[in-house]
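Running co-folding for uridine-5'-diphosphate.
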Amino acid sequence: MNIFVTGGAGYIGSICTEELLNAGHRVTVYDNLTEGHRSAVDARAKFIPGRPEQEGDILNAVTSAKPDAIMHFAANALVGESMTNPKKYFHNNAFNALKLADAAVEGGVKKFVFSSTCATYGPPDRIPMTEDLPQRPINPYGESKLMFEKILQWYQSIYGLEFIAFRYFNAAGASEKFGEHHRIETHLIPRVLQVVLGQLPQAEIFGTDYPTPDGTCIRDYIHVLDLAQAHILGLQSGKTGFYNLGNGDGYSVREVIQMCEQVTGKKIPAVEKPRRPGDPPRLVASAEKAIRELGWKPKFAKLEDMVTAAWTWHKKHPAGYPD
Ligand code: UDP
């Protein structure tokens, strides 16, 4: 198939692009490179520099690529930042995404695959979290993604735009070639590994008074290659709707730091800090629906696999991508 990938220069988008190409698909990457890196775009993909804020830019890109499907990864994805700069999140994650959905309809694109998030749920009533839980986001990041989920539902029922929205839990790990490099890194695993690389003095633990066994937030980590696999299955499945992607295992911030110590063989100094606004205490997926309906089989379900893959990539690319 011919796939139009937004955000294909970013962390998850670059690795999904690589896996789509490995699976024999053709890919056009559209990315404005504010978060992404040109050198993270697989050389086999066609690259269109994106200017999503310019009238007609997204539509022109989609109509020139004539894709069978769109995979929409491009987004701002930092919970903490969304609490201080919500405007950025609503403009990019909702408004620019809406322009893309319009272009999909106008261009007659058959299928839309959307990177949504477990942040659309807010603090859950039940763990593990199934797709039918109420969605009550507690940060603008989650809200902006939920807004676009709703747009997709209406566009499906009225315009017939078929979609799959994957609600990712916490992506981690790397492929051999591509990995996680944010210009300002806020994610737990890369930040802890930066301590080992001597780029940060110590790890920081945001909040130690949560209602969890060790007082720190619990997240469900998922290997980025398993995420990519789910996208490829979703594309071929003919299914539509919402799917959680996680492993059903929760790890606390302290447990993640311990795993980084185990994998790197280094003691990692850590300091306790206040809570980060917008953080739900515990997010753990049930991905039973994706397993049952899409035939998804995560291959790297252990946190150790993810931290090992991330560490291998960061050791090879201590400064990340050159651009
Ligand atoms: N976190 C932390 N120290 C850091 C970065 C993150 O304690 O240096 C915590 C953060 O508050 C959250 C968890 O680790 O509870 C996962 O955060 P991350 O930003 O990696 O992903 P998120 O769950 O926000 O998407």
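Result summary
The pocket of uridine-5'-diphosphate is lined by residues 79, 170, 186-188, 191, 204-206, 217, 219, 253, 276, 279 (CB under 6 Å).
Residues 98 and 151 are 8 Å apart (CA to CA).
Job closed.
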